Amino acid sequence: MSVLDVYDIEKNKVAELELNDFVFGADVNESLLYEVVKMQRACRRSGTASTKGRSEVRGGGRKPWRQKGTGRARAGTTRSPIWRGGGIVFGPRYRDYSYKVPKKVRKAALRSALSMKAKEEKILILKDFPMEEIKTKKFKEVLDRFGIKKALFVLDKEDRILEKSSKNIKDVKMLRSEGLNVYDLLYHDNVILLEPSVKKIEGALQS
User: Fold this and answer.
1) HSE-up of 187 (CA within 13 Å, CB side)?
2) Which secondary structure element, helix H or strand E, spans residue 121, and what is its range?
3) Where are the alpha helices (H) located in 44-147, listed in sequence order?
4) How confident is the model at residue 54 (pLDDT cuts 50, 70, 90)?
5) pLDDT tens-digit series, residues 161-186
6) Are 35 and 15 in contact (CB under 8 A)?
7) Contact 204, 25 (CB under 8 A)
8) Which of 15, 19, 89, 149 could disulfide-link 24, Cβ–Cβ 3.0 to 4.6 Å?
9) CA 167 to CA 199: how far, in whole Å?
């Protein structure tokens, strides 16, 4: 098992924590990471692009001119797809892009992402993060102390004060352990775990 130092918010080492190699020391499978990130991005697509067909475009009920004798091509409606203002042929429609990959694949991809961050030494474990009131400035001071800018915070439970203190800081995101996902792990440079959240993550990904 690998061992990581545990710090307080003053950047003092207060303990050491053994990490489960099954979760934080697994082989990095890039194909799994690709599949799960592709799924997450597909699920986030709104799918609201839409066009109107000839039956949905307003107007065009009257035949524009008589069938024969004008010298022009016959036309039954001004809303034909070949006319300006007409309906669209085979245009985009409302659709749901979301799909799912198996739960085992998602868990394996999470283990790969966490292991990659551990190998890159991009994981920081904090004993706790005590804050009595919402203070963005104080939160930012802690990040600066560790030299961190783009970070994913993983909490073990809901913490409104901490979540709101970080809300206005660019490239910092708060997640509870049950919401941990591959896309956010890969997007952010650093992962900051509160010590109690480590056991929760290991418990969820060992099964």
Assistant:
1) 13
2) none
3) 103-119, 136-146
4) confident
5) 999 998 888 889 999 999 999 999 99
6) no
7) no
8) 19
9) 26
Residues 6 and 125 sit within 8 Å (Cβ to Cβ): yes
Q: Tokens representing 161? A: 């004060």
Domain ranges of the chain: 2-29+101-205
Take residue 39 and report the two structure tokens written for it.
Answer: 């799924």
Provide the β-strand partners of residue 3.
Answer: 18
How is residue 131 written in tokens? 């804050």
- What length is written for the chain? 207
Identity of the residue numbered 159: D
Q: How many Å apart are CA 129 and CA 149, to the nearest integer?
A: 17
Other C-beta atoms closer than 10 Å to the C-beta of 117 total 22
Structural tokens at position 30: 């890039």
Could you give the strand order of the β-sheet that contains 151-155, starting from the edge strand earlier in sequence? 13-19, 2-7, 123-126, 190-194, 151-155, 172-176
With CA atoms as reference, report the closest residue to 131 among 176, 161, 152: 161
What amino acid is encoded at 44 in this protein? R
Bridge partners of residue 154, in order along the sequence: 175, 193
Average pLDDT over residues 138-156: 91
Dist. CA 157–CA 155, nearest whole Å: 6
Looking at domain 2-29+101-205, its CATH architecture is 3-Layer(aba) Sandwich (3.40)
